[in-house]
Every structure is written in C-alpha cells, then in structure tokens.
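Batch manifest, entry 17 of 40.
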Amino acid sequence: MLQNLETLARDARSWPFEQARNLLAHVLKKRLSDSERNAAKLLIDAGKADEALATFEALRKPVIFETGYGPSGLPHMGTFGEVARTTMVRNAFRALTGDHWPTRLIAFSDDMDGLRKVPEGVPHPEMLTEDLHKPLTVVRDPFGTHDSFGAHNNARLRAFLDGFGFDYEFLSSTEQYRSGRFDQTLLTLLERFDAVQAIMLPTLGEERRATYSPFLPVSPVSGHVLQVPTLERNVAKGTIVFDDPAGGRTEVPVTGGHVKLQWKPDWAMRWTALDVDYEMSGKDLIESVRESSKVCRALGGTPPEGFNYELFLDVEGKKISKSKGNGLTMDEWLRYGTPESLSWYMFQSPKSAKSLHFNVIPRAIDDYLAFIEAYKAQEPAKQIDNAVWSIHAGSPPAHTSPVSFALLLNLVSVANASDKAQLWAYMAKYLPEATPDSEPLLDRLMGHALNYYEDFVKPAKAYRAPDDKEKAALLDLAARLTALPADADGEAIQTEVYAVGKAHAFEPLRAWFGALYEVLLGASQGPRFGSFAAIYGLPQTVALIEAGANGKLAA
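Output type: structure tokens
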C-alpha cells in the first residue's frame, strides 16, 4: 500500500514527509561516501530505491526509529504522541523509498533507572519506599501482578501500544545492559571518559560538577543505583572504582549490567549502540539533545535525525504538568473521543503549542470526519498531504460516520437521551438501514457523545429567551417547517432556515443561527440545523421552536 508513491512523497508538503526527506538525506550521508551518495540519491529519486539498496550494501541495514519511555509511571498522552508522530514519519519514509527499505521502530524503556520517589496513587507505597534507588526492574511490584514495578509498567506500555495497533519492537534497558549489547559502547565511553566529562561538566552547577560521573554503578551490597564519583578507571580491565556507602571502596566492570549511565550519556550511548537513525523529542529537551549529540560523536556514533515538538498547554495556556494534573489523560480522551481523533490532533502543527483540554475533543472528532470525506474527492497529490493518510498509513477508511459529533451532542441534549437505544430510535427515521453493526463508528460516537454531554455540556447549558425580532423569526420558521412534507430531508429544512434568516433581515446571517442555538439548544454554537431537524423529526423540531419562541425553554 505504501509502494509506487515515491514521486508524490518527494513533493508532499506535510511535516511527516518533510521529516522523511530529511531522514533520507541523513541516512545517505551517514552510510555512504559523497560519490556513492549522489548515485544512490539519483536512483531513489527515480523511484528505484530497490536498485539503490542492491547496489550499496550499507543501505541494506534497516533504518532505525526510536521512542523512549520512563517506566516509573504509566503511559500517558506524551507517550502516545511521540509514538504516533514517529510512526507517521516512518510511514512517510516508507512511501518515499517505495517501501523497499526495511525500517524498525524501537520503543525503549529506561527501566534500569533507579526509583527516585514513590509515585502517587499506587498501592503499598511503604514497599516502594523500602525499594527506593533500586533499578525499576528490581523494585517490587506494588500491584502484585509482575516480577517488578518496571515489568508491570512495561506490560502496561506494551498493552497501551498494542491497543492502538502500533508496529514496534520493545527493548528493555535492563535487558540490553545485562545481555552485553551495550558492552562495547560502554567500554568506549570508559576509554573516552575525559572527553565525555569535558562535554558534560560545563553544563552542570558547581556542586554537581565536583562529584559527577557518567557512570552510575549498581551497589553489589544495597542494589541501589548510585550517583557517586568515579575514583579510578581501569581501561584495560574495563572497570571503575567508587566509594559505595554500603560497602566501602568497590571495583565493578562497566559491562554486564553492573553500571548504568546518567541519562544524557545514556541517550547518546543508546543512539550509538543501537545505531538509531531518527528520534524526536519535546521542546524542553533541546539542550539535552544538543549535549547528547556531542557525547554520541565522542563515542564514534552519529546522532539521529529528528525534530523538537512543542508541548501541550492547558485551557489557561499554562504548560501541562503531570504533578499538577492540569492536562488531559489518555483515558479521559478515550472516554469522550476516538483514537483516530486523537491521532488527528497529534498530526496538526506539532511545532506549535496547542491546548490539550476537554474542549478540543468535539472539534477534533468532526475535523477528522471532515478530512476523511475530503480525502475521497482529492487527487493523489492532495491525498498524501491529508492528515488521514498519515493517520492510517495510506489506507484511510472509505466510510466513517454519516452524522457529525456536534449533531449527536445536540440530539442527546434536546432528546434528553441517556443511552444509545434512544439515539438509535431517532436515527431510524433518518437512516432507516443503519444499525450498530453497519455503522460501528456512529455507534461508538453515540457513546462518546452521551459521556461528553453528561460531563461537560449539560452543566454549562444556558438557554435564553428570544427578543421580539428573533421570536417572530422563530414562529415563521415553525410555520414553514409545518408546511413541509413529513419526509423532508435536511437540505430542504436548511433552505427554509436560510430563507427565514434573510426574510427577517439578520445581518450578518450567522446572528440568526446564533439565536437558534442559544434559544433552542442552550449553547453558543451547534450543528447544521437542517440535518439536526431531519434526525430529531419535523414535528418534534416544530414543537421545540415554538417552545423556544415563547420563552419556555429559558424558563
């Protein structure tokens, strides 16, 4: 499905394709000489990536994408955003190279990190307090379901990613350190210890500079991950000496899981050892990327391509903080909206700060639906830049929901519905052939609409009485709708709504629609009124309009 798109991908303007082209240039520069690179690029630009890979052995290795996860807590919105956006770039790269070039997405868990504090809301906090400073894969699981707290959270991460259908490979930091996969790069760091210190020390405060070491030894006595100075280094033996608070002067190898690295050198070591080609990160890590890139080069590696995305803001424009709880959790979004709508929101302008609050969900759902509809009529060059191409890896669904989320919200409100069965009863008039089985997305949206209305719309509804001009227009509309055939469709109803607004000289015309929403629905905005009336039913709509015109709804 991602083949034969090279020309379109080369000209596409959306950010995943910009990133894919940057990545292609990065990998060619990293793996080939100047002359080889020019020849390979000519082949790839001509849609012959398979020939380029056959010609140049260095290109046959997979292109490695990485995302990182700190398993001291559960997966969250940032975890989803990073994996979703990286997957979009990966799919764009596959299209750019005709899907001939193998790629891998690594979801890396930093589970050898020491537990620094007890997270809020977990059971048996006293047990975690006893295990503070031990690696997360040694800390006992307070939930009692896995061998360790790290293993518990890793399982949650994998279930989380699997639930969204991401294609990835999971790697555990603990397993990589202990298996020896990082050994050669760790020995290189030991050899180039002074060069790494020269990079890191200027970035630290005076007090920390005095004791900083990139190596964090694991105490053979206490099992703690220690932040202690490195007193001696033995490059030939591959060991360091440090003062263990629990055991005195101690010598351990830097290999085999006996040490872990400080996180910035660890990031650099990982890039080098795993040969990572692409990793994105938040704007707050720009300096960290810069420092880790220097360390990566000092280790003989090439820092990956990537970009820094903006962070999300709360409804007041303040930076979202997990400790403050001023953001939106994954479970909360999925209570009120679909995974696809969240992916759509993540796609939009990743380098611009955006509010991540409940009020963005309805618009995100309907924008996603609108982009699906637009996709159907677009030419291929436009389709590939449509967000839904990236969300669905080039295969967006042919059918979504025949009814908007905004319309469902207002139907729930006016019908005073409390379950899907009531909504389907109204829908039977509008879409007689539709069932939950034939319209699964619509059925899901009904559930989301019921939840969203109960939690957010209902408490905020505020009806008002119409003024004299609005009352006359409303009664006129009621009379016109009464004269329509019982089976009038949404377009016929909408035509009458427009005609009444013009006949009663509303300027601008949107003031008439504002009056409809505020008087009849108790909200400042609403759905396309004709479609709403067609689903709700003409007799019921006429009764609603008459009640609103006479001020009964406001009362």
